[in-house]
């Protein structure tokens, strides 16, 4: 429970910081295409930070299961792969990194599906 709340809160913190960095430090230094890519990473990181926090709260209110735990970890992995690859792509321009992004997206989708299954079975 506490682990996911802390990870989610830290991820939200970094999302705000990275969003500000993108808006102020990167403006004029990278193309608008990569600013937009950066912002997509920030947006998805924040959405999933909130999801991770919700999972942490759920773990404290119901009997946690492996479905719930895996849902949280898949969102963490998804954030690293999806948002992380978009940040590196934006800064480096190395397009092959775009091949990693869908793996993060699949992790996000799997995490949300496991949360749905958890809710359907438990609540």
TrEMBL record:
Keywords: Membrane, Transmembrane, Transmembrane helix. Its main location: membrane. InterPro entries: DUF423 (IPR006696). Pfam families: DUF423 (PF04241). The chain crosses the membrane at residues 41-60, 67-90, 96-120. It is found in: Membrane. It is a multi-pass membrane protein. The keyword Phosphoprotein does not apply. Belongs to the UPF0382 family. This is DUF423 domain-containing protein. It comes from Rossellomorea oryzaecorticis.
